[in-house]
Automatic annotation (TrEMBL):
Record's subunit section: Homodimer.
Any Pfam family: Fic
Function (record text): Adenylyltransferase that mediates the addition of adenosine 5'-monophosphate (AMP) to specific residues of target proteins.
Listed name of the protein: Protein adenylyltransferase
Database matches in InterPro entries: Fic/DOC_N, Fido, Fido-like_dom_sf, Fido_containing, HTH_DNA-bd, SoFic-like
Gene3D superfamilies assigned to the protein according to its UniProt record, in alphabetical order: Fido-like domain (1.10.3290.10)
Origin: domain of life: Bacteria
Catalytic activity: L-tyrosyl-[protein] + ATP = O-(5'-adenylyl)-L-tyrosyl-[protein] + diphosphate; L-threonyl-[protein] + ATP = 3-O-(5'-adenylyl)-L-threonyl-[protein] + diphosphate
UniProt entry keywords in alphabetical sequence: ATP-binding, Nucleotide-binding, Nucleotidyltransferase, Transferase
Residues annotated as domain Fido: 117-268
Keyword check for Lipid metabolism: no
Its EC number(s): 2.7.7.108
Organism of provenance: Sinimarinibacterium thermocellulolyticum
Length: 377
């Protein structure tokens, strides 16, 4: 739509798409494969001794990757160290943005027990995401009241790749989106989730944080629609690997109404990410049993304490000797000895190179979740 000031903004038609999405042929096969992959993932996660520990790491992996799409530098190790209050002078300044993503995710998952996915929830999530970080001055939780645009650095409204709806149209566009979230238009649930994400990104209701909130929405909807028992499907990994295509597919919906192209891309992401997470769940079980056996064989009388430390490492994967001492209520010398022996079997790896104030990471576990470029030599 043309504005009185001379620029053109895009106002999306309400969902579901008209003409309807063509779900025949290859798209139907993809949808079937995606539903099957999600079902396998759900089953695999529920075989884990404590599925919530798997959720713990997946939330953090998603936080890192979704934030990296927006330009942050922090790694999974940076985030875990910051959460454990083990601050390193080399930690990127943007680690707080990633920590906020974790907080926003956990806030949203907790709120789903009482509040459906809605404009109200979306605004709450944005508040958590933007609190106290760059862009935090841009009214956390408040819909934008000025025109925004998307494009290369230095572009103007006239040269932007995409100009989202003018601010006075945003409340109605979100209201229409909320209505579709609740009634679904008779479409399969996974298709609904894909359409909602694309529509949210097109509405672009905030001055900052739209990409991250839109990706959080995917997780909330998968959980609310009971496509997964536990929230362990995070598509940011796939979107980051295929970042250019991700943006191109969203833009093709706006330019040409190519919903089918976007859906094919989205469902391929669900299939790939589900299979990867299923394999990770199986790898966690193998790793856990393998190290249980190693601890029993190699730690002798200290084996019971070794097992206790490993159990705690699943949700505290970066530790100091003082942490281990506190967990086991033993002497500093005893804690140092346990840590050294766990380091000896490869369960822990020292990451500072310091003689004092050393920190250790739960090496075999973190390697299952990290991107190759994030792994330390």
């Amino acid at each position: 739509m043309s504005q009185s000031t001379g620029y053109r903004a895009f106002l999306p038609a309400p969902l579901p798409p008209d003409p309807p999405v063509d779900l025949d042929g290859a798209l139907r096969d993809r949808l079937s494969a995606a539903d099957y992959a999600l079902g396998r993932l759900d089953g695999a996660v529920l075989t884990l001794p404590n599925p919530d520990l798997f959720v713990f790491m997946y939330v953090r992996k998603e936080a890192v990757l979704s934030s990296q799409i927006e330009g942050t530098q922090s790694s999974l190790q940076n985030l875990l160290a910051a959460e454990a209050h083990l601050f390193d002078p080399d930690t990127p300044k943007d680690v707080q943005e990633v920590a906020n993503y974790v907080r926003a995710m956990n806030h949203g998952l907790a709120r789903l027990a009482k509040l459906p996915v809605s404009v109200r929830l979306i605004r709450e999530i944005h508040t958590e995401l933007m609190r106290g970080v760059r862009g935090g001055r841009l009214q956390p939780g408040e819909l934008r009241t000025s025109q925004d645009w998307i494009g290369p650095a230095g572009c103007t409204l006239a040269t932007a790749t995409f100009v989202p709806p003018p601010p006075h149209e945003v409340p109605q566009a979100l209201s229409d989106l909320e209505r579709f979230i609740h009634d679904g238009g008779g479409l399969p649930p996974l298709v609904q989730v894909a359409l909602v994400h694309a529509q949210f990104e097109t509405i672009h209701p905030f001055l900052d944080g739209n990409g991250r909130v839109g990706r959080l929405l995917i997780t909330f909807l998968l959980t609310e629609k009971r496509l997964l028992t536990k929230p362990v499907l995070y598509l940011s990994h796939y979107f980051k690997q295929h970042r250019a295509e991700y943006y191109d597919r969203l833009q093709a919906v706006r330019d040409a109404g190519d919903w089918e192209g976007w859906l094919a891309f989205f469902l391929d992401g669900v299939i790939a990410t589900s299979r990867e997470a299923t394999a990770t769940a199986a790898a966690i079980l193998r790793m856990r049993e393998g190290y249980r056996a190693k601890i029993t064989e190699r730690l002798g009388r200290a084996a019971a304490n070794g097992q206790r430390v490993m159990d705690r490492l699943f949700d505290h994967p970066i530790v100091s000797v003082a942490t281990v001492r506190e967990w086991l209520d033993i002497t500093p010398a005893g804690a140092n000895q346990i840590v050294a022996r766990l380091e000896g079997i490869g369960l822990l790896r020292e990451i500072t190179g310091y003689a004092r104030n050393r920190r250790f990471r739960f090496e075999p576990y973190l390697r299952l979740f990290e991107e190759p470029q994030d792994m330390q030599p």
